Amino acid sequence: MKCFLLCLGVSLGSVVVAAEPAKTPPVTPAPTSVTTPAPSATAAAPSVPASALPAMSFYGSIADDELFDLIKKSDQFTRLDKGLFGSPLNLRVMHTLQPTAGGKATGLLSAIFTGGTLGLIPAVTNNSLMVTYEVRVHGRELVSYSYQRTFTRAVNIWAKDETHGLGKEGLDWLRGTAAEFTAAAATDAKLASLKKEYERYFGVPPTN
Q1: Residue 85 is assigned to a structural domain of this protein
Q2: What is the pLDDT of residues 41-74, one digit of tens each?
């Protein structure tokens, strides 16, 4: 009887063992390589020429975009900024455009003929243009340079004017005054003193 029970227990144990599914070892995933992008190089702040004047705001009463771009190309005014509102240092470009003494009579007769022909005959003007460049500190004039020229111009009243009322010759001359001004500013003793005084109080900015 004991032998029978022993054999039965061994048989049941074998059945239980056989019924259990075989355990498979866990699969370890292969390590994946992660590529970390290299940090992008931070662009260095552009340095300014050693001869650059302190930052100053800009205002122009005529052709301000053209004159601003031309003046800013010079080493002295590389810090010129249209958006520098409230700056104690300012560069202003002002102009006057007036008919000459002879141009008043000529312009009147020309206007009569032009009006009588409904604009078929262009109007003739003879004007004197003066442009003045001023560097001002706290509202006071530090240096001022003026340039003047007289132009005779035929104006078609029906044509679109893209020369600020100066004509091609007048606009070309106006642009040329920007180079004359920056050349004069490069050797101006008052502007050189302004630069030294500014650097004494605020330090020397990074230069090329």
Answers
A1: yes
A2: 445 556 778 899 999 999 999 999 999 999 999 9
Please give the pLDDT value at position 8: 39
Q: Could you give the maximum distance between any two Cα atoms of the chain, in Å? A: 148
Number of domains in the chain: 1
Query: What local confidence, expressed as pLDDT, does residue 202 receive?
Result: 82
Element of type H or E holding 141 = strand 140-155
Could you give the CA distance from residue 90 to residue 41 in angstroms, rounded to a whole number?
35
Q: Which residues pair with 92 in a beta bridge?
A: 59, 134
pLDDT band at 18 (very low <50, low <70, confident <90, very high): very low
- The CATH number that applies at residue 155 is 3.30.160
Q: DSSP readout, 47-103?
A: PB-TTPPPPEEEEESSSHHHHHHHHHTSSTTTTEETT-TT-SEEEEEEEEEEE-HHH
